[in-house]
Design goal:
The structure holds 2 protein chains of 2 kinds. Chain A has one domain (3-521): Cytochrome-c3 Hydrogenase, chain B, CATH 1.10.645. In chain A, 41% of the residues lie in helices and 14% in strands. Chain A is built from 15 helices and 13 strands. Chain A has helices spanning 41-45, 52-57, 65-79, 86-112, 119-122, 127-137, 144-157, 179-207, 227-255, 365-374, 378-390, 403-434, 480-484, 496-501, 513-521, and strands at residues 3-7, 17-24, 27-35, 216-217, 220-221, 271-274, 293-296, 303-304, 311-314, 353-356, 448-456, 459-468, 471-478. The radius of gyration of chain A is 23 Å and the shape is globular. The two termini of chain A are 31 Å apart. The mean pLDDT of chain A is 97. Chain B is of the alpha/beta class. Chain B folds into 3 domains: 1-53, no CATH class; 54-239, Rossmann fold, CATH 3.40.50; 247-346 and 365-400, Irregular (Cytochrome-c3 Hydrogenase, Chain A, domain 2), CATH 4.10.480.10. Chain B contains 18 helices and 11 strands. In chain B, the strands form 4 sheets. Chain B has a 5-stranded parallel beta sheet, with helices on both faces. Chain B has a two-stranded antiparallel ribbon with strand order 4-8. A two-stranded antiparallel ribbon of chain B has the order 5-6. The longest helix of chain B has 14 residues, at 19-32. Chain B is globular. Residues 338-370 of chain B have low confidence and may be disordered. Classes of the chains: A alpha+beta, B alpha/beta.
């Protein structure tokens, strides 16, 4: 007999999400994922100036405003036919990298870690053993005694603050993971708060502030680097990179073996899409540092070029009345006139159901890392191969198509992006010394259609802009979460997260930690 | 003088914060609160004392939000976010970072409101979503409005963080398809009398949350019975904004102000004038119409702020900032320095603030033919691409 369980709200994500699952014999047999919020960005932007899209559209997401801001600006540049100069390309890559680093650190420690690490268990750790274990695992040390005392005071004080009603002591935590490793992770959970803030400061130097930045304009950037500011960017990036390599990556590799079971479930559709991110000199999507590509893994791990022409959005199961099956360049987003209620057999989400070439696809770091791996991007290949060896799966990248793979891909990507960011700032320093580097090209055209196809840390992002008479005639956004939390489409085919939930174990139906883990692994 | 708590400073030191750095921060908070810098040790003492004493219960509700204000709060430095949620507040409900999930998370909210009725603060982030009877925001099988109806009446005070919470933000921009509004307007309409402290800008600056938390909770802005004191009320302007934060314009304190006085302007991004850090008024800066202390407090631990990065201020702390500010790169036709509402970049004057139960009503009368053609929607002051006089100067290379 199947039993329906509901997680609502799914916390520790950006936004409002509901996950409903049918569970039979301790395994999830069906799932429905619902986005809870409609704000109407596309309608608000109509009739405004193309340059204004940047300021407003980035406010779709407070965790990834940089990506939305860039995609909005790029959609104007694509519609109005302008290519940004070299200086602006590097500045944008750097600001975007700042956000990737910020977001990945925040995701792993602040949002996801509590699904794998139990602060209650950290109380049992022996301090001397903890130092020994940290050294053995090659991860950084902290004042473990003070951290343990802090957790103890909190628990004994009876005011648990953000840990109130958490599933402390849940049997779904790896029972054989040593208390000392829990304590190490809790200490780094606190340390990560400073590191995510440091990454935000990298953005603030070049973008004015974070969240929400100020310096991207169609044609380039308003930020003109000075030697002093570039030094500041470099210094902070080095600090972040060292922390990722000395703390975040070893933590990931130390914890992963205790959750090796998560290599067996949470696989999802096996279809992956990346528009690509971080432009190289050619400005072509396929030449990006993390390149464009689409993978249908049922046909083997092979990559093809991805094009927006193959995207259609369906709304049969979403609370919209506008036409279904439109390409976003001509898309419409009109909410229903009266709310029909939540019904998994009819309409049940504010997210649309985008499909690529008719298929539900997954987007995000796993998609990007697989595409880059298959396209032979050297630093990606090297770090993925090293991780696969550590997981005892050398030469088998297909094992990454799993819950654990999705988690690992994000953290590995952070290490690769940190290295590239340091390259870019050095390039910019060299260019600035040489002189003649440009940051802005004025726009002359006042009509056209275009798309800003880019990546947010959480996956492929598209902004689509049609301009007539110098004003926005139509605007559409397909966010990464729209792909990942997609409801069923016209044919009843499940979205990526819905599919990933199927087959996952549920130890305790009252506290389905495994389902929450899968939902969060998408960083929706 | 504050007593010196060694354990407290040891903890700070672990986070790379020196005692001197912490006291300097307390001095800047004192300045922000309109106090003399000699009050810095008092503030330091209050923050120190908070560590180890009972935490003040708080809940953080996300309405129609992008989560940018939660993110922004996480960028706070002294006290940092860990200190705020472990040493000062018992933040029992905050969807974005709380450990609990699903029904257990929802219970944490209702239990906190029940157990601490009248003695907890409700922080509200995001737009109040009224569209489709509130179904434009659904959480835990309820509408977002239900949460406000049930929790807000029990709170000692509501702190509205960010422009969306204050007046609906970009979501409310014309044609307001999802029915967005601000929390003080909504509470007024529902007859809920809980006082509201408004902290606009998009997102909220974390330093302002810190200033309010210190003022309201550590320096007695809310008394033991959960009542907002006269002392705190007297620091709010008629819009419920702390006047020590929102009492001066950006232009008043702008480091580029000297260039404005000298007639040295940026007319195009990427130009030599921009590299020289000239005034951004001709490329659309709304600094003269915008009242916040951004140039002083800056952002991300005083790393930078909008104008410092070469970007014109978009007035994100203004009433109805998208409709009143766009086109954001359009030069404001009149400058109207420092006059609240008079120019229209700001707020409708003469309206009682939320703290007194008032709502910001009405809109600005200044609009006219041609606004639609300029990408201006709704109502607000006029902008123009460039004055003829400026166009000539721009050709000459700008500046002096």
């Amino acid at each position: 007999m199947a039993e329906n369980i509901v997680i609502d709200p799914v916390t520790r994500i950006e936004g409002h999400l509901r996950v409903e699952c049918a569970v039979e014999g301790g395994v999830i047999t069906d799932a429905w994922v619902s986005g809870g919020l409609y704000r109407g960005m596309e309608t608000v932007l109509k009739g405004r100036q193309p340059a204004d899209a940047f300021y407003v559209a980035q406010r779709i997401c407070g965790v990834c405003p940089i990506s939305h801001g860039h995609a909005a600006t790029m959609s104007a540049e694509s519609a109005l036919n302008v290519t940004i100069p070299a200086g602006a390309r590097l500045v944008r890559n750097l600001i975007e990298a700042g956000e990737f680093l910020h977001s990945h650190i925040l995701w792993f420690y602040t949002l996801a870690a509590l699904d794998y690490v139990d602060p209650a268990k950290a109380l049992e750790a022996d301090i001397a053993e903890t130092y020994a274990l940290a050294q053995a695992a090659g991860t950084s040390t902290a004042n473990f005694g003070a951290v343990q005392a802090k957790v103890k005071a909190l628990v004994e004080g009876g005011q648990l603050s953000i840990f109130t009603n958490g599933w402390l002591g849940h049997p779904g935590y790896a029972q054989d993971m040593p208390a000392e490793l829990h304590l190490i992770a809790v200490a780094h959970y606190l340390e990560a708060l400073e590191m995510q803030a440091e990454a935000s400061r990298v953005i603030a130097i070049m973008g004015g502030k974070f969240p929400h930045f100020m310096t991207s304009v169609p044609g380039g950037t308003t930020w003109v680097p000075t030697e002093e500011k570039l030094d500041d960017v470099l210094f902070r990036l080095l600090r972040i990179r060292d922390w990722i390599k000395n703390t975040m990556i070893p933590d990931t590799l130390a914890i992963a073996p205790y959750y090796a079971g998560a290599l067996e479930y949470g696989k999802g559709t096996g279809n992956f899409l990346a528009w690509g991110v971080f432009n190289s000199e050619s400005m072509e999507m396929v030449d990006r540092y993390l390149p464009n590509g689409v993978i249908f893994s049922a046909q083997g791990l092979k990559v093809e070029d991805a094009t927006p022409d193959k995207v259609l959005e369906y709304v049969e199961h979403s609370w919209y009345k506008s036409d279904s099956g439109l390409n976003p360049q001509e898309g419409k987003t009109q909410a229903v006139d009266t709310f029909p209620g939540y019904d998994v057999n009819a309409k049940y989400s504010w997210a649309k159901a985008p499909r690529y070439d008719g298929k539900a696809v997954e987007v995000g770091p796993l998609a990007r890392m697989l595409v880059a791996y298959l396209r032979g991007v050297a630093p990606v290949k090297s770090i993925v191969d090293t991780a696969l060896t550590a997981l005892g799966a050398a030469g088998k990248p297909e094992v990454l198509v799993s819950l654990l793979g999705r988690v690992a891909a994000r953290n590995l990507e952070a290490a690769v992006v940190a290295d590239w960011a340091i390259e870019w700032v050095n390039e910019l320093i060299a260019a600035a010394k040489e002189g003649g580097v440009e940051f802005y090209t004025p726009i002359e055209q006042n009509a056209g259609k275009g798309a800003g196809l880019w990546e947010a840390p959480r996956g492929a992002l598209g902004h689509f802009m049609n301009v007539e008479g110098g004003l926005i005639a139509n605007y559409q956004v397909v966010t990464p979460s729209t792909w990942d939390i997609s409801p069923r489409d016209a044919d009843g085919v499940r979205g990526a997260m819905e599919e990933a939930l199927i087959g996952a174990p549920v130890l305790d139906v009252e506290r389905p930690i495994e389902a929450a883990r899968i939902a969060r692994s998408f960083d929706p | 003088m504050a007593h010196e708590d060694r354990a407290f400073y040891d903890q700070l030191a672990e986070r790379g914060v020196t005692r001197r750095g912490f006291l300097k921060f307390c001095g800047s908070v004192a300045a922000m609160l309109g106090l003399s810098e000699t009050m810095a040790p008092t503030i330091a003492g209050a923050v120190e004392a908070a560590a180890g004493s009972k935490l003040y219960p708080a809940v953080w509700l996300n309405g129609g939000a992008c989560t940018g204000c939660t993110e922004s709060a996480a960028q706070s430095t002294y006290p940092d976010i860990a200190q705020i949620v472990l040493d000062i507040l018992s933040l029992n409900y905050i969807e974005t970072v709380m450990m609990a999930t699903g029904e257990d998370a929802d219970k944490a909210l209702y239990q906190t409101a029940e157990a601490n009725a009248g003695k907890f603060i409700m922080i509200y982030e995001g737009t109040v979503m009224t569209g489709l009877e509130g179904n434009t925001l659904r959480v835990a099988g309820k509408t977002g409005l239900q949460f406000i109806d049930e929790i807000a009446p029990k709170a000692a005070a509501v702190v509205a963080v960010g422009s969306c919470a204050v007046d609906g933000g970009w979501v409310k921009a014309a044609p307001n398809p999802a029915g967005g509004t601000g929390i003080s307007m909504y509470l007024k309409e529902k007859g809920i009398a809980t006082p509201v402290i408004n902290l606009p800008t998009c997102p909220v600056n974390p330093e302002w949350i810190v200033a309010i938390v210190i003022d309201a909770l550590l320096l007695g802005g809310i008394d033991e019975n959960g009542k907002v004191t006269e002392g705190l009320v007297s620091k709010l302007d008629q819009f419920g904004r702390p006047s020590f934060i929102f009492g001066q314009t950006i232009h008043d304190n702008c480091p580029r102000r000297g260039h404005f006085e000298n007639g040295e302007f940026v007319y195009q991004f990427g130009s030599p004038e921009e590299a020289k850090g000239y005034c951004l008024y001709p490329v659309g800066c709304k600094g003269p119409q915008t009242q916040t202390n951004c140039p002083i407090v800056r952002w991300n631990n005083q790393t930078s702020w909008c104008v410092e990065s070469g970007a014109p201020c978009i007035g994100c702390g203004n009433f109805n900032w998208v409709d009143n500010g766009a086109p954001f790169l359009g030069r404001m036709r009149k400058i109207g320095i420092g006059s609240v509402g008079a120019q229209g970049g700001g707020w409708e004057p003469g309206v009682l603030g939320a703290i007194a139960g008032g709502a910001v009503v009405g809109a600005l009368a200044v609009h006219g033919v041609g606004m639609k053609a300029a990408g201006r929607i709704g109502e607000g002051p006029a902008t123009e691409p460039m004055k003829e006089y400026d166009a000539k100067r721009a050709k000459k290379g700008g500046g002096n």
